[in-house]
């Protein structure tokens, strides 16, 4: 049995909801920011609590130290997906047993490769790569050397990139709020996870490069994103962590695998537009173009 956050990447949700039951693995999807609900969901056969540090796409913030206490009290592993917030959070230092990343995103930063990382104790990693019994060794997971070297090279700029991504997202959040267009951003003091984020972050790197706004309907979201792409704000694309700004309608893209009833439980509006802010040097000019597109709706 697994206790998992309801608001996770659509592919992760589909894997747990539709694929793991084939192996008699049950998954309870809950709000992992509600610690009482986490405690109540643990069963005698629970093996894992799974959450994202900042979840996709609602940008709720997990209290990793508190979840670690619960996991240790119940002898289960805490697994944290830190894809949205490399450098910003250090989940292993906060108590996570296993930390996973899609390196396709911020870690690589170029959207030119597909890769993932599993970070854990030496004993656990060695068990995964054991020549005779290791899942990663036997199921085809190893990354080819060319892609690995490319990602390794890009790691050297990751701290600088994360600072700029965060700076640009914070600027956009402030401008959206000033327009009366409520932004979903952990850096906003009124964001429900702001205090948790601030208490557990590595402060040099800001509040992250992901931001969302609610345009209420799919039609408005689609027209807005099309105009932004036509005006060279960035690309209408589902990935994130790129040096150009990317935007997508989450309910129709990265969360499309999540059933509508679950989307409603998440609070996911059909018109939610998620931004992955790029490395724009002149973010003021970028915002002016975004504002022009919004006013044209």
Topology:
Layout: E1 2-5, H1 10-19, E2 27-30, H2 35-41, E3 48-52, H3 64-73, E4 77-81, H4 91-94, E5 98-102, E6 116-119, H5 122-128, H6 135-138, H7 145-154, H8 158-178, E7 183-184, H9 194-200, E8 210-214, H10 218-230, E9 234-236, E10 245-249, H11 260-266, E11 272-276, H12 283-295
Parallel strand pairs: 1-2, 1-3, 3-4, 4-5, 9-10
Antiparallel strand pairs: 5-6, 7-8, 8-11, 10-11
What labels would you give this structure?
11 strands; 12 helices; alpha/beta; Aspartate Aminotransferase, domain 2; six-stranded mixed beta sheet; 2 domains; 297 residues; Aspartate Aminotransferase, domain 1; five-stranded mixed beta sheet
What is this entry, summarized?
The chain has 297 residues and is an alpha/beta fold. The protein has twelve helices and eleven strands. The longest helix is centred in the middle third of the chain and has 21 residues.
């Amino acid at each position: 049995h697994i206790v998992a956050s309801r608001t996770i990447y659509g592919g992760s949700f589909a894997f747990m909801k539709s694929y793991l039951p084939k192996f008699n693995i049950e998954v309870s999807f809950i709000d992992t920011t509600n610690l009482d609900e986490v405690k109540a969901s643990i069963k005698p056969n629970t093996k894992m609590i799974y959450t994202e540090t900042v979840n996709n796409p609602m940008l709720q913030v997990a209290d990793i130290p508190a979840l670690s206490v619960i996991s240790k009290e119940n002898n289960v592993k805490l697994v944290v997906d830190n894809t949205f917030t490399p450098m910003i959070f250090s989940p292993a230092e906060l108590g996570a047993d296993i930390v996973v990343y899609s390196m396709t995103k911020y870690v690589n930063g170029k959207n030119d490769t597909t890769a993932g990382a599993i970070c854990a104790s030496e004993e656990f990693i060695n068990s995964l790569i054991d020549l005779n019994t290791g899942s990663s060794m036997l199921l085809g997971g190893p990354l080819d050397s060319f892609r690995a070297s490319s990602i390794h090279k890009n790691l050297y700029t990751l701290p600088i990139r994360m600072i700029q991504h965060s700076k640009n997202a914070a600027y956009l959040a402030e401008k959206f709020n000033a327009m009366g267009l409520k932004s979903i951003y952990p850096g906003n003091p009124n964001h429900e996870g702001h205090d948790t984020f601030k208490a557990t972050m590595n402060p040099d790197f800001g509040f992250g490069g992901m931001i969302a706004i609610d345009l209420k309907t799919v039609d408005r979201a689609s027209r807005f994103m099309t105009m932004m792409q036509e005006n060279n704000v960035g690309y209408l694309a589902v990935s994130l962590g790129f040096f150009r700004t990317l935007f997508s309608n989450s309910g129709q893209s990265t969360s499309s695998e999540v059933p509508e009833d679950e989307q409603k439980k998440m609070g996911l509006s059909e018109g939610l537009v998620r931004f992955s802010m790029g490395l724009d040097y002149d973010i003021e000019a970028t915002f002016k173009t975004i504002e022009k597109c919004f006013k044209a709706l």
